[in-house]
Amino acid sequence: MQHPAILEAAVIGKVDADGLTKTKAFIVLKAGQSLTEEEVKAFVKERLAPYKYPRFIQFVTELPKTATGKIQRFRLRDLENKKA
Q1: 57: Cβ contacts below 8 Å, ≥ 6 apart
Q2: Which distant-in-sequence residues (6+ apart) come within 8 Å of 68 by Cβ?
Q3: Reported pTM
C-alpha cells in the first residue's frame, strides 16, 4: 500500500499448479490511477525480499469488508476457490 497509486490491498495464499502455496494480492487503485502487474511486482521487490513478492495479482474495484471496515479475507479465498 506504499505505492502512490494503490488505495488498499489484501494478500491471501493461492495454491499453484505444482501444489505450492504462493501469495496473491488483490489491489484497489486510487481513482484515476493505473498500474500493471509488473509494476507492482517490481515495486514490492525493491522493498521486500525478492521471494516475498506476490506471484499473482488481481485488480479489483473494492475489497469485501465487515461493517467495521475489516477486510474479509475468507471471502477473497472463496472467490479464488470458485475460479479454480
Answers
A1: 24, 25, 27, 37, 40, 41
A2: none
A3: 0.90
Q: Measuring CA to CA, which residue among 39, 75, 71 is closest to residue 57? A: 39
* Tens digits of residue pLDDT in 16-41: 889 999 999 999 999 999 999 999 99
Residue 45, C-beta contacts closer than 8 angstroms, at least 6 positions apart: 53
C-alpha cell at 24: 496473491
Partners of 64 in beta bridges: none
Residues 30, 4: Cα–Cα separation, whole Å: 8
The SS3 call for residue 26 is strand
